[in-house]
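User: Hey, quick favor. My workstation is busy. Could you predict this chain's structure for me?
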Amino acid sequence: MTTLTTIAAGLAAEERKSAEVTDWAARIGWVVGLLLFIALVYWLMRQGWKWRGSLQSGLPGLHPVPESSGTPLATLEGRYHGSTTAGQWLDRIVAHGLGARSRVELTLTEAGVDVVRPGATDFHIPRSALRGARLDKGIAGKVLAEGGLLVLTWEHGETLLDSGFRSDRAAEHNDWVTTLNHLITTTEGAR
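Assistant: No problem, here it is.
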């Protein structure tokens, strides 16, 4: 029995040892490595954005918002979700600040659509450049409920673009589509 007691006492003594101390140098090394990896991914994403902008450098500058466009036919406050090549809801246009999501105030007048974006480039879509308006569910990687997005199709230079907007009051979308398509139809009839 003494042998069993000795073995049990030896095992009990081993259990009382404290756990191994954390190797802080290795842990800090892993954290620094992870942070460097995240920084590299962010830098690559930024380079991709700049590269896309340089590919789209042939797109002409945006029309500035005129001082006085006339009497508003419709207004909308909400979010600008981006512009894409028409019919290609994932082909984001980033040139001239069109890729930046922001708050927006849209004003439809007889002259066209004024797009005022606090913190981003404001622009004007002339009436002659407007090609259509519709309700959709996604643009530039942003997907919403069916019909939750107002998409304006317009021509800029030689490129047909879709720009997506979401009103703070979704009920306004249908009025915008009706009014804008009526304005486009009367413009085409006058040509």
